[in-house]
Amino acid sequence: MARLAALKQVQTRYLAALSGAEQSSGGAGKVPEVAAILKEKQSVANGEALAPAFPLGLPASLQGSRTDFLKDAAAVQRDFLPRFSRIDTDYLRALLAFEARSGAAMTPEASRALAEEKGRLANGVAKFGASAPAPAAANATSGANLAANGNFAQLDANGAPAGWEVEGDICKVVADGSAKILRMNEPKGSKGGMYQSIPISHDYHSFEVKARVRMLDGDAKANRGCINVWGPPAGSEKWGVNLLGSVSGEKTKAWKPWHATFTPPANSDRIVIQFCPNGTQGTLDFADVEVLPKR
Fold first, then answer.
1. Could you tell me the residue range of the domain that residue 202 belongs to?
2. Tens of pLDDT, residues 188-209
3. 245 inside domain
4. Strand pairing category for 237-242 and 193-199
5. Is residue 58 part of a domain?
6. What is the rounded distance in angstroms from the CA atom of residue 291 to the CA atom of residue 266?
7. Could you give the angle at which helices 2-27 and 31-45 cross, rounded to 10 degrees?
8. In sequence order, which residues have a C-beta less than 8 Å from that of residue 14 and are 6 or more positions away?
9. Residues 14, 43 contacting (CB under 8 angstroms)
């Protein structure tokens, strides 16, 4: 409720500015401007994500109000995203537990409702610029990026990447030019890491994880097991895949593209992508993390 109220405040301020500009442009007979303003008002009222670029046709007098709206809406999302990620994860865990307890006793109506609710979590619609994936086209071979805040641009009040759970202090977000990256500094015997729980849809049978990786120091052959994917019990056993087996290169400090594909068990409802040291040591950087579903 607090998030919705904060977003409503931000939305109301911008809508008031749009209404004022609409009256001014309408009184001056500027029909194209009025049309652009009405389109913008509809997008804001519907909670649609707005493009960062200033739209053609809007009066220049709205530039400041629009910039403030995007900035304020992003700030609200940044502050609330971590707790909503945890809430969604806990809710999905409760749904799965209910499904397991019910078993064959579940009615067809309850089964359909449960499937719809799990699908809503997996393909939730983002309001006001949040980074949830959009539904894929029916004939698409891959879907939108499922990883929230994969560029680490959004930080919470403690400076941790929003949408990710951080354990220990070996993972930190640092600046790399104008971008933000994840730096994993792994002293010998270090523990901890960072992970994100992602609900998945059964519409896709495999998933591709992509990122940019570079090694700043340490033994290239020793830096392994740094990106894992695992999931809750599928049937009776927990499953997991070690995707990043090693970092190729000789401490060149150059970014290298990396990707790997995995197939979770057929009855898995979520995956967890995890950055962890697995007993190795050295300094690794990660950027532009994507989790792409594949048909």
1. 165-294
2. 656 678 888 888 777 777 888 8
3. yes
4. unpaired
5. yes
6. 17
7. 170
8. 44, 65, 66, 68, 69
9. no
Q: CB-based burial of residue 47 (10 Å sphere; 0-12 exposed, 13-18 middle, 19+ buried)? A: middle
pLDDT tens column, 32-75: 899 999 999 988 888 777 877 888 889 989 988 998 888 888 77
Question: Helix or strand or coil: residue 242?
Answer: strand
147-169: pLDDT as tens digits: 888 899 888 878 888 888 888 88
Q: Is 151 helix (H, G, I), strand (E, B) or coil?
A: coil
Single pTM value for the model: 0.51
pLDDT at 37: 92
What total of structural domains would you count in the chain?
Answer: 2
Distance between CA atoms of residues 243 and 209, nearest Å: 8
Which residue type occupies 292? L
CATH value at residue 258? 2.60.120.260
Residue with tokens 């949040």: 130
Angle at 184 between CA 234 and CA 126, to 5 degrees: 55
- Please check whether residues 200 and 261 belong to one and the same domain: yes
Residue with tokens 């052959």: 221
**Domain match, 6 and 127 both:** yes
